[in-house]
C-alpha cells in the first residue's frame, strides 16, 4: 500500500488523501514553481495509526526511501554534523482547520548538527542556536506534552538577565544557555534526554501530528464546522527554508485579490528577516507586500508572476505563504482563499469577465448563505468605532440597543418601545421571553451551538456568543470589557456576522443588495461591483433553475414585496392571521354560537372581510398562482387563556357583577381546552366539526377571484386543506367546496384548484390514495418534522436542541434544514406515490425549509415543482434552485 507521496507525485485533486496543504504543494511542484522539496504521508496512514495505535506496515520503509531521495535531491543528509538537512513536519487535513493541529520545525538539529547549520549559514551562530532552541520548545510541547509555559518562562528569564524584552537582543551565547535550560526542562518532564537521533525526532513528530487529529480543540472544531471525524490528517515533511538569515531573507502572506471586497490588486504582508511564526505571533510589524519591490525587486517580480500564474491555474482567488531565503523565493503554501460574502460574488463576476470561468461555475462558487448575509443591514463603521470585544458571529445582523441583564428587564423595556440587547454569561430556556423581546443577544460564553446561538438563529435574531473578553456580572447589572464598565441602560452595538462588539450606537446602513432586489438600484446604471455581480449571477440562476419559487405571504404588502424579490406566486397564505385584531370578536361569536342562526350570522359577518383580504392578495399576485390554506390552528387560540378568564370571572362574581357573558365564554374555553392542542382539534378536523367555517372561506376565495376576473385581472386560486391524514377527510371537504365553487364561479372563466398539505406522516404514507382527491400537494415540513420526530416545534429548540447539537445527534436543527433520511424520506415517498396515482400532480413545499439552501437542493432532487418561503428568503431560494442544477 502506498502511504507516502513525493510532492511530484500528487496533485490538487488528491485533497482527501494528501490533505489540502499536501495536494496544493504537489500541484505547485508540478507547475514548476519553487517549492522546497518534500513528501506527504497520507491520511490513510493516519487513519490506520489512529485505528490501531501503531504505524501501518510498510510506512517506516516508505518514509526511509522518500527521505533518502530527498537527501539525494538536496545533497544533504538529515542530522549531518557538517551540512545538515532540516525538515518541517506539518499537519494538513482535507478541510482547513486553522491552528487546530500540530507542526514541528527544524527537525534534524542536534548537538552536532547545530554547529554545521551555523557554518552553512555563514557562521551565523545566533541563527543556529535559535533554531535549535525552537526545535526543543516545539518538539517538547507538541510531541512530549511538556507544558509550554516552562519554556516561555525560561525565555523570559534569559531576556530578564539580559535586561531586554526583545528576543532579538539575545545573542548566540544566551541562546546556547537557553538550549541547556530547555533540555533540562525536557528531561524533567519526560524522564529522558532530548532525542539526538534525527530519524527518531522525525518519527515522533509524525506520530504527534497523527495524534493531534484527536486533540480536544480539533474535535470541538470539527463538530462546530461539521467536518467528519474519521478523515484523519496528512503529514507533510518539507525541507526547511529560512526567512531569518538576514536582511535579504524574509517571509510573507498574500492574496491574489482583496478577500474582503474582491477588488483586483496585490494584497499581502511581508516581514524581513523573520520566520512564519513571527508573522503569526505578531512580534514585529509587517509591511505591505508592495514594499518588497524596493527590498528585493527580483523576488517581488517573481512572486507577482507566480501569483498571476496561480490565479490562472486555479481560476480563483488564491492565498499563499512564501519565504525568501537569501534572495531565493520559496512557495510554502497555497490554497483557494477564504473570502467575505461580498467578495465571493464580486470575484465570481470578475472571473467570468476575465474568461477564466463561465457563468455556471460562477453560480457554483457563491451560495445562499452568502447572499442572505448580504441582505442584512450592516454597521456603517468608520475609524471612530473600534470593537471592544470579539466573540462568535452566532446569528447575523447588526443590532444596537440598551444593555439589560435579565429577561424580565428586556421584556419591560421592549414593551416601552426601546431596543434592547440582552447580555448574559450564557442563556438558558428561562431567558426565552427576554430573547424574544430583545433586538440582539450577547453572551460571554458558548459557541455556535450554545443555547443562545441556536435559539437566536431560530428566531432570526442578531446574536454574538462567546465574547470571552466580557466579564458579565448579572447581580450588579454591569459588564466590564477592555477596562471599561458598561451598566444597564448603556448602549452597545453587536455585529452578528463578524462577532464584534462596540460601545455606543453604531449607525446602520441598509443592504445595497436588498435595495437592488427592491428595484431601487438599477444594476445597469450604478457603479457598484457587488450589485452588478449579484444581478448577473441571479439572472443566470433564474435561467437555469427548474424549481419555481413562491412565497409564504398573507397580506398584500408581503405579497407585493415578495413579488419584487422574484416570487412566482404564493405557496402558502395562512388565513388564520386574518382572524386576529378586531375580527377576534366575530370569531368569538362563531365559537360561542349555540344556535345555527347565531353561527350563520357570525360567518356572514366574516365573509366580506375575508373576501376583501383575498381580493387584495390576488391583485398583488395578478396572473400568478395563489395557494390559500383554510384555517389551521385550534380555535381556542382565538379565545382568552383559561386561567386568566377563570380568575376574572371569580373576581367579578365576588364583586357581585353580572357575569353571564363571561361565564358562557369560560364554559366554552373549558369545553375546548386541550392538553395537546397541536395534535388536537385543528386543520381539517376543525373544518369538519364547525359547520360552515370552511364553506365561508371557500366562498370568499371564489368570490374574490371572480371579482378580480371581472376587473380585468387574472386570479389563480388554489385552495389548500391543512392537516389531512386520510383521503376521506379531503373528499368530504372537497365535495362541499366543489359545490360552492361551481355556484360562485359560473361562467367567469375562473379556475380553482383543490389540494392538500402533506404534513401528517400518515398522509405521506397514503399519498397514493390522497392524490385521488387532490390536484396538488404542498409539503408542510414544519408539522411533518414535528410529527415525524415527535418534537414539539414550539418547545424543543430552546429546551434541549443545544445539547443534541453538542452531542452531534444532528448537525443542524431538523426544523431549520430538512432531515433527508427521515422526514425527507416521507417527502420522497409521497412525491413518488402521489405522482404515480395522478400524473401531473403539482408538488410544492411551504414549510420553513423552503428557504433553506441545503433543503432547496433536496427538493430539487426529489422533483418538486416549487418551493415557497418567506419573502426575504425568496432570492436565496432562487439562487440555490439555480445552483442545484449546475
Ligand atoms: C407546515 O407545517 O410546514 C406548515 C407550512 O404549516 P404551519 O407552519 O402553518 O403549521
Ligand atoms: Mg402545518
UniProtKB/TrEMBL annotation:
EC number(s) from the headed UniProt entry: 2.7.9.1
UniProt cofactor(s): Mg(2+)
GO molecular function: ATP binding; kinase activity; metal ion binding; pyruvate, phosphate dikinase activity
Domain PEP-utilising enzyme C-terminal intervals: 533-881
Domain annotation Pyruvate phosphate dikinase AMP/ATP-binding: ranges: 16-53, 61-285, 290-342
Active site, UniProt feature: 451, 846
Keywords associated with the record: ATP-binding, Kinase, Magnesium, Metal-binding, Nucleotide-binding, Pyruvate, Transferase
Residues annotated as domain PEP-utilising enzyme mobile: 418-499
Protein's recorded name: Pyruvate, phosphate dikinase
Family according to the record: Belongs to the PEP-utilizing enzyme family.
Residues given in the record as substrate binding sites: 574, 629, 759, 780-783
Binding site for Mg(2+): 759, 783
Source organism (scientific name): Micromonospora noduli
Catalytic activity: pyruvate + phosphate + ATP = phosphoenolpyruvate + AMP + diphosphate + H(+)
InterPro entries: ATP_grasp_subdomain_1 (IPR013815), PEP-util_enz_mobile_dom (IPR008279), PEP_util_AS (IPR018274), PEP_util_C (IPR000121), Phosphohistidine_dom_sf (IPR036637), PPDK_AMP/ATP-bd (IPR002192), Pyruvate_phosphate_dikinase (IPR010121), Pyrv/PenolPyrv_kinase-like_dom (IPR015813)
One Pfam family of this chain: PEP-utilizers_C
Origin: domain of life: Bacteria
